[in-house]
Design a protein that fits this description.
about 700 residues, mainly beta, Immunoglobulin-like, 6 domains, six-stranded mixed sheet, 52 strands, about 40% strand, elongated
């Protein structure tokens, strides 16, 4: 938030720094932490992504090059008695040993260490497709605790999970060992969009390195322990149903997924888990954020303080998000109770598990009722995470109840408890509260989650955290954007439960930082050489280009109509551009798209400046109007008896009550039209915009300014 003036600035600065450090630590030390990066102190996903190179002869250099655009993932592994923390690119793996490892040759990594991936670390055949040739570990920046490993994965088989093997002393006497890391080979290179709402029918475009083939996929909290088969319980909050990808005709490297995300929790990330048709499921390396916010407006702001944004957001519920439960091997309302902890699903011992505990489970699932059925008819496998569970009934999740401790029990799976719930309720989803925080992070930089921790607040990389304000579904925020980079896109990042909750922030939209100081709608004619005046800050130059289009972002679909780019001419804050509008549609409004450094450079993307251009068809109009009913004549090409005109002191988009009511045109011959204007409510000496709506109030066009003012 903006700093308040005080007589003790040093003390206030120290308090702010202490608060920021608390937020920083809370963001790093999330309670749901399946893996921990020792070097950075961050909780991360425990899965590694590796992709197959499309060209078997590409070699290591080509693999490294193709990995540059893929974000880091961090994992935790156990080797002997030494915890090693690693990070992985799609084709490069790194290790970091913890502080306090004195003898790196005996207990950790050294320059002699070698790593490889294989079907089995103990097997003798590690040649492709059974594995890779070993590669040597290379110290990071002369460190004795941080190492990288690059391997040639070109021969690995897509859709197969491999083991990451390590030979701590290379050619020495120590054997090759299994690190416990599963390396899944996938051809999935990207997926769009990376953010979806919690609704059914979410279409996602998958791009593969080579043919996508027999691909199926689903979203899940973790891909560990899941399969390509359907979810055990339809509608569970930890994963979606698996669906088969549909290959795009004539483009085998592209496929479409249609996922039902209606059961997922807004405000959290899910892994895209894939099966390449071999019956093995693994992480694709693509994370999908389920957004809680929709309809963010406006899509552009200035690099200034107090920039307002408004958005729609569902009411927040009290359902927790740090302990996940499901009912397995049953129906949507009953089954063996399982809880997700430490990266795996496990059962709950049924001793002394009553209807009170069952009601807490049903509430957590968004259901009502709750009955303990005793021992499940279908025993589980894996860990028994909880025993001796005792709830008061007021808890919002099973994890808040008392119990003997995680994985502390003397029960067997024959005592796994089953639960019966009554029916579903339309419970509100976890979205926005007064604790929710918003900030902007440079779209070309780290993700929202990484930027929240690692990017300096108030710089060009991200804005400060600010609290949401609002109630119900309508929420607003005022951002301090003065230090942001003009002409760049920023991710609108939402942290639904704030700095101290378990959720990580995610991107829900893109916001463009416009250099224009005056926004609104300008009028042009459907002709060549149409001049537009543009008020721009000091970031505009003669290299800056603008063009008109139905939309400025061509990443999703090409613009239906677009003019050629025109360079700005001028200096200071007053510039002009001349565009050819002869091919545009009469009565249509277009976006003024801006490229700060022009098409010949790529430092800044094309963005929506916030300025609009309306293609007017009025060539002449009256310039004076008496305070009475008055007939006027105007020249208008393409007008009809359905065309309306009116006067307003505001904008001409139909949202402002006109000062002079709408009036339909009457033909006077050729392009001449007459109109009867009621000027009895106008104020003497004030000028009003003459607005024209080509197809009238009941048509599809919004209308816009005519280029003329009447006074």
């Amino acid at each position: 938030m903006r700093r308040q003036r005080t007589n003790c600035p040093k003390q206030q600065q120290q308090q702010q720094q202490h608060h920021q450090q608390q937020q920083h630590e809370q963001r790093r030390q999330r309670t749901n932490c399946p893996a921990f990066d020792c070097s950075k102190g961050e909780c991360v996903d425990p899965e590694v992504l590796l992709s197959q190179a499309p060209n078997p002869s590409a070699g290591v250099d080509s693999i490294r090059h193709r990995a540059h655009s893929v974000p880091f993932e961090v994992i935790t592994i156990l080797l002997g008695v030494v915890f090693l923390c690693g990070f992985a690119l799609r084709h490069a793996i790194g290790f970091t040993a913890p502080h306090g490892v004195a003898n790196s040759e005996a207990a950790g990594c050294s320059a002699a260490s070698q790593g490889l991936v294989a079907m089995q670390c103990s097997g003798s055949n590690v040649m492709p497709p059974n594995g890779t040739l070993p590669g040597s570990l290379v110290a990071v920046a002369s460190s004795t605790t941080s190492w990288t490993l690059s391997l040639d994965f070109a021969g690995l088989q897509v859709g197969v999970a491999y083991e990451l093997c390590l030979d701590a002393d290379g050619s020495g006497p120590l054997p090759v060992g299994d690190t416990g890391i599963k390396v899944f080979a996938t051809s999935v290179a990207s997926v769009l969009p990376a953010t979806v709402p919690a609704d059914a029918g979410q279409e996602m475009q998958v791009t593969c390195d080579g043919p996508c083939g027999n691909l199926s996929a689903h979203l899940a909290v973790t891909c560990q322990g899941t399969s390509g088969a359907a979810a055990q319980v339809p509608g569970e909050s930890t994963r979606t149903m698996a669906v088969a990808a549909v290959e795009v005709a004539g483009a085998p490297s592209f496929a479409t997924l249609l996922l039902d995300a209606s059961s997922l929790r807004p405000g959290r990330y899910y892994q895209l888990c894939v099966d390449h048709g071999l019956g093995q499921t693994g992480a694709s390396g693509q994370q999908i954020y389920v957004a809680s916010v929709t309809g963010a407006m406006p899509k552009m702001i200035r690099a200034d303080v107090g920039q307002a944004l408004a958005f729609d957001c569902e009411v927040c519920s009290t359902r927790p998000d740090d302990s996940h439960v499901r009912l397995a091997d049953g129906t949507a309302l009953s089954g063996r109770l399982e809880i997700f902890h430490d990266g795996a699903w496990g059962s709950v011992c049924g001793r002394n598990f009553t209807d009170v505990e069952a009601s807490v489970v049903c509430h957590q699932l968004g259901l009502v009722g709750g009955e303990s059925l005793g021992a499940s008819s279908a025993s589980g496998s894996g860990p028994i995470w909880m025993s001796g569970v005792g709830c008061k009934g007021s808890e919002t999740g099973l994890g808040q109840c008392s119990h003997a401790g995680w994985d502390v029990h003397n029960c067997s799976h024959t005592e796994d408890v089953a639960v019966l719930c009554s029916h579903t309720v339309d419970s509100p989803k976890m979205c926005c509260t007064s604790k929710s925080q918003v900030f902007l992070a440079l779209a070309s930089g780290p993700s929202c989650a990484d930027a929240a921790v690692n990017s300096e607040a108030g710089g060009h990389a991200r804005s400060d955290f600010v609290m949401m304000q609002g109630a119900g579904t309508a929420w607003t925020v005022s951002l301090e954007a003065g230090a942001l980079s003009v002409g760049s896109y920023y991710s609108l990042c939402i942290d639904g439960d704030g700095s101290f909750g378990p959720l990580d922030p995610g991107a829900v939209d893109l916001i463009y930082i416009t250099p224009l100081s005056q926004l609104g709608t300008v009028a042009i004619m459907k002709r060549t050489f149409q001049r537009m005046l543009i008020h721009c800050d000091s970031s505009c130059t003669t290299s800056t280009e603008v063009f008109l289009a139905t939309h400025c972002d061509n990443s999703s679909a090409p613009a239906l109509e677009q003019t050629a780019a025109a360079q700005l001419l001028g200096s200071g804050e007053l510039w002009e551009a001349t565009v050819d509008a002869s091919s545009l549609t009469l009565g249509q409004t277009y976006r003024v798209c801006l490229d700060r450094d022009g098409a010949s450079k790529s430092a800044f993307p094309v963005g929506d400046s916030g300025l609009l251009a309306y293609v007017s068809n009025v060539d002449s109009a009256p310039v004076a109007l008496a305070s009475k009913l008055q007939s006027a004549t105007l020249t208008c090409e393409g007008c009809s008896s359905a065309t309306d005109v009116y006067l307003t002191s505001g904008v001409c988009d139909g949202t402002v009550i006109p000062a002079v009511p709408r009036a339909s045109l009457g033909a006077a011959g050729g392009s001449e039209w007459t109109v009867l204007l009621d000027g009895r409510s106008i104020k003497t000496g004030k000028h009003y915009r003459l607005c024209v709506d080509l197809d009238g109030e009941n048509g599809t066009l919004l209308g816009g300014p005519s280029r003329f003012e009447v006074g």
